[in-house]
Amino acid sequence: MSELVDLSKLDAPKVLEDLDFESLLADRKAEFIALFPQDEREFWQARLSLESEPITKLLQEVVYLQLMERNRINNAAKATMLAYASGSDLDVIAANYNVKRQVIQEANNNVTPQIPEILEDDTSLRLRTQLAFEGLSVAGPRSAYIFHALSAHPDVADVSVASPQPANVTVTILSRNGQGEADESLLNVVRTKLNDDDIRPIGDRVIVQSAVIQSYEIRAKLHLYRGPEYEPIKAAALKKLTAYTKEKHRLGRDISLSGIYAALHLEGVQRVELISPTADIVLPSSKSAYCTAINLEIVTSDDY
C-alpha cells in the first residue's frame, strides 16, 4: 500500500473543543461567584458546593446545554474533514476529488431472501480519496498505479506495486472475496484498466498478479482470575482478536506474536498461553495473511 499519512494517528485539530463537564462547571461557578462583592463570595462558594442548591442545578443545566452545543459544532467541523467524516459527509468530500463510493454487492429484491446492497466502507473510500491526486497522473508513480487499481473494481481490497526491473511494474491484487486470492476475471479487469493508453506510460510493462495467501490459525489458552463470569471476557478477547486479524488481512502486513498477545490480554486475564502461531509471520508485499480459525480455551485460576 502507498506510504500515505495515517489520518487516524493525527492529533485532533484545535477547532475540536474538549467535552469536559466538570471543568466547564467549575468555570461557570467561578464566573457566577465573581459577580458578587468580595465579602459575599465565600458564602456563595459554600452554597454552590451543595448538590441540592437550586443554583447549582441551574448551572449544571447551563453547562449541559453548552456541552451539547459544543458537541454539535465539533461534529459539524468533523464532517468537513477527510480524517473524520463518515457516511454521506465523506461521500461529499470524495466527490470533490471525483471519487465515488463503490458498490461491493448489488441489491436484488427479486429473490428470497432479498440480497441487500453492500457499499464500500468509509476506511476504503477515505484511502482512495487520499490517493485521488495520484489519479490525475498517468500510472507512472507507485501511488498512481495503486489508485487506478483500487478504482478498477469494487472487489479489489488492497494493492501493492513493485518494480523489479526498469520499465517493469508488478501489481499485486488482494481480493475481497474468499481468503483474498484474486481470480482471473478480476485480474483481467485490472489489467484492462492499467493498460489503458491514458493511464499506462509508454514503455512500461505491467504485470498484474494475485496475492499469495498464507493461511494461519490462532490457538490460545486464556488463564483467568477466579470470578463469576468467564464468557464475557472470552467474547471480548475474541472480538478484539478478530478485529486484529481483519486489520492485518492486507498485503505485506506481518502477524506478530506481540499483536496477538496485546489483543488477548484484557482485564481479568492473568496470562495468555499462545499455542499457535509460534513465531511472527513476516510477509513480503506480494503476500497476505488470512486467519482460518480462532480457538480460545478458558483456564480458571485459583487467584482472585
Automatic annotation (TrEMBL):
Species whose genome carries this gene: Haemophilus parainfluenzae
Top-level taxon of origin: Bacteria
InterPro entries listed in its UniProt record: Baseplate_assembly_J_pred, Baseplate_J-like_C, Baseplate_J_M, Phage_Baseplate_Hub
Protein name: Baseplate assembly protein
Residue ranges occupied by any Baseplate J-like central domain in the UniProt entry: 138-209
One Pfam family linked to the record: Baseplate_J_M
Baseplate J-like C-terminal domain segment(s): 216-296
Upper lineage: Bacteria, Pseudomonadati, Pseudomonadota, Gammaproteobacteria, Pasteurellales
